[in-house]
Amino acid sequence: MGETRKLNDRYRLLNPLGAGAVRLAFDEARHRDVAVRELRVPPELREAALFEARRATGLRHPSVVRVLDVLIEDGVPWLVMEFVSGVSLEQAVRSRGPLPVQQAARAGVCVLAALTAAHGAGVVHGRVDPGNVLLTATGRAVLAGFGFPSLSMLPSADLWSLAATLHFAVEGRPPGQVPAAGADPLRSLIRAMLHPAGPPPVEVVRETLDRLAVDRPLDAVVGASGPLPPARVAAIGLAVLDRLVAGGAFHGGVQPGNVLIDGAGQARLMPLLRAGTLPAYTAPEGAATQAADLWSLGATLFTAVEGAPPAPGAPLTRAGALAPVLLRLLSGDPAHRPTMDELRGELLAVMAGDPNGN
């Protein structure tokens, strides 16, 4: 293919991009760089493919690589797409290794927003994979690959593919038959999205990714900064308690990796996914009750203030005024644990006893 060739007497073909399936071109009518790609489909699918490609030209979103034009040159259909300067997620991981959780979550936020906009417009992508997610120099992720036949896939297939893409981002490999273990919220979310029963509600996926993009799990905070002061731990406990009260039912996932801390130090308990609770944070009675959630909360706060989860005979050396609260929460007898109202008062008292958070 000659470098001086033009499509539609307008798009001057230049060098290949990436592996060569996509070419850089210059739009002489609009004086801008574009990307072009031949739309290769079996003859029997050509009309359906052209219909889907033309429908994709109406899709507008900051996280979507736009399809600008669909044309036929010498009987061959071509897609003309917005040119985005960036590296694919696949290239980034293969060259530099898996992404940090926050960066992967930020990419997930962008891709999910793109898919939500597309699904709202009746467009299923059908090709979500690490090669079609572009990471820009500003940290934004954009989803390429629109305009190709989706083979009548459902929107849920795009969510499964997003989960597989995020798995690749943090693990450096596709999920295969055994997705990566790990109790952190992102890996828990990925496993839930890959589950044969179908993904969690989109709102849960969005909230989890939004939080992970900017917040850090409590266990990561403790791992980086060491045990936290009792009054601060009491404030975290109060925030988690509020979430449990608002939920009104057994949560089943109270543990440090599922409590996210924002930049202002505020805590938020994430919704339960299919990952379950780690043994160290599971109440000894193994019951699906709110009293069991309170035991898990006690174990979580123990970890935050002492730096390690509770174990038989483990001393409370840093808990100060929080110590008697933790001992009640961690009682082996659910009847000896405080009620939620009692716990609220006790946590507020610990906070009031040290207004400086020490």
Task: Give a short summary of the structure.
This protein folds into 3 domains: 6-82, Phosphorylase Kinase, domain 1; 86-214, Transferase(Phosphotransferase) domain 1 (Transferase(Phosphotransferase), domain 1, Orthogonal Bundle), CATH 1.10.510; 216-353, Transferase(Phosphotransferase), domain 1 (Orthogonal Bundle), CATH 1.10.510.10. With 358 residues, the protein is α+β, with helices and mostly antiparallel strands.
Task: Describe the 3D structure.
With 358 residues, the protein is an alpha+beta fold. The protein is built from eleven helices and twelve strands. The strands form three sheets. Strands 1-2-3-4-6-5 form a six-stranded antiparallel sheet, with helices on one face. A three-stranded antiparallel sheet has the order 7-8-9. It has a three-stranded antiparallel sheet with strand order 10-11-12. The chain has helices at 46-56, 89-96, 101-120, 155-171, 185-194, 202-214, 218-225, 230-247, 290-306, 323-329, 340-353; strands at 6-7, 11-17, 22-27, 32-38, 67-73, 76-82, 86-88, 133-136, 141-143, 216-217, 259-261, 267-269. The mean pLDDT is 91. It has three domains: 6-82, Phosphorylase Kinase, domain 1; 86-214, Transferase(Phosphotransferase), domain 1 (Orthogonal Bundle), CATH 1.10.510; 216-353, Transferase(Phosphotransferase), domain 1 (Orthogonal Bundle), CATH 1.10.510. Helix 3 (101-120) packs antiparallel against helix 6 (202-214) and helix 8 (230-247) packs antiparallel against helix 11 (340-353). It is elongated, with a radius of gyration of 25 Å. It comes from Nonomuraea gerenzanensis. Residues 11-358 form the Protein kinase domain.
